[in-house]
Amino acid sequence: MHSPEQAAHEAPAVVWPAWTAWAALVVGFAGALLAALVLGLVAVPFGASLDAPPPSVNILATVAQDASLVLVALLFARLSGRPRPADFGLRAVGWWPAAGWAALTWGSFFAFTAAWVSLVGAPSSDTALPKSLGADRSTIALVAVAVLVCVVAPLTEEFFFRGFFFGALQSWRGVWPAAIVTGLVFGAIHVGSSDAAYLLPLAYFGFALCALRVVTRSLYPSIGVHALNNSVAFGASQGWRWEIVPTTVIALASITLVLLAVPRLWRPAVAPG
Prior knowledge:
- By secondary structure, the protein is an all-alpha fold.
- It has one domain (4-265).
- Helix content is 71%, strand content 0%.
- The protein is globular and about 50 Å long.
């Protein structure tokens, strides 16, 4: 006999309508824009400019964007019933198979990016986002941006894009068309925060992370690869060398603690029986 937790884990995933993916994307970013406007207006009396907001406002606006995406994913998923962690891919996975597929995914992204950068002559690292958030202005801003890029973004973006958006789109034309569209949208949302030359590699990254979720049946490896990539990329953007290693370790450890807390804070619904 299965325990209630095992029954919830093994129950078939909820199929979300494809339209909820697009609705959540629009509502999520609309909420993010509204939050950014409110934060900017609140900062004006303190000497901030709406045209060139200070790093603190940009950082808080980015946090608000990430929170908005998570919230709308949960809200639109709720339209099809009470969502469970496993519906978003938050399920256990074997360590060694996950590590192997994750390494292959990150390696393919690295190879794709290197080939693309060599072809178009782009800079070796993308510094647009850290600079826009003011990582180069103070130590406090640097730490805040590091947490945002290396911990918060991998958790929230994977939850929304690979956990919900990709999952909902699969009811449209199946897995691989959904993965392609998710990848393209993932690349497109980085317009303005990344150098234009990196948008296609980011689209490939979004597609590859969808494939990783498919083969592992879990979102955890995708979150790990995303965090690993962001940590290395952030360190490179700052000209770091050995500092990249502790940054990556701290980011992965922080994400692990958050994911370990999820089952305790989010009790899945279990059908009586």
